[in-house]
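New to this. Help decode both lines:
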Amino acid sequence: MVGLKPTYGRVSRYGVIAFASSLDQVGPITRDVEDCAIMLQQIAGYDLLDSTSVDCPVPDYSATLRDGVRGLRIGLPKEYFIEGLDPDVKAAVDSAIETYKALGAEFVEVSLPHTEYAVATYYLIAPAEASANLARYDGVRYGVRKDEGTGLADMYEKSRADGFGAEVKRRIMLGTYALSAGYYDAYYIKAQKARTLIRQDFLDAFEQVDVMLAPVAPTAAFKLGEKKDDPLQMYLSDIFTISVNLAGTCAMSLPCGFSKDGLPIGLQLMGKAFGEQELLKTAYAFEQATDWHKQRPSL
């Protein structure tokens, strides 16, 4: 499967249940890159009903898919090729790099120096915004209502207890704590400052390259429910994808191999703001040179 996270503002968020307003985005998940381009073409564009929607032209994404990548400068962020990278993931991504070299792309090492702060920054900003956004789901205005006639406070408590799952509750509590008196400046404001530095890292890197390439995660896909009892490990799996979300630029995930256990490995391509066209072209070239998108996990 191919997934694309558009630039913040490229696709309208109107009608989406708000989780983290400065991070929420709508993007296509499709069977291949060409379908992804077709789908993005239909959903991209300015929407008066979304104040975060950006009024800028939408290119014909399918028109340039077959332009190839000869002469394209692809950045390899050194912070994403770390010692703890799973050997199967490293081998799959290294193979993808060799495929691109054979297609005529050039590679440049770049740095995103504030990557180490990305997980902490995201898991302060996203829960804080979720805490504020999901407060409306109180059983009166929105959401499940559990009213046993024992008073308003009891109805609120039971409605929110039954209406949210464990992970949502965890994030609401984290966010409420970060926004509470005495901690707002120390946590939420500091996280916003770190976010600015992370965004600047991407702006600096894209002055040197057209797109960037990295793994989607340090490991292959984990099994369904495998990390539900260890949320910290689950959050750390996001380390390579969180930064681009904080920066607000676009990125794609596409298949590039399997682990020795038959679990899929994802290749991540990151683009400049509103650079989806370049991203799709780059992904399509890899897809046509390999057959990973036609294979299925052998579980």
Q: What stands out?
A: The chain has one domain: 2-294. The two ends are 16 Å apart (CA to CA). The beta strands are 2-5, 29-30, 73-77, 106-110, 211-215, 250-258, 264-271.
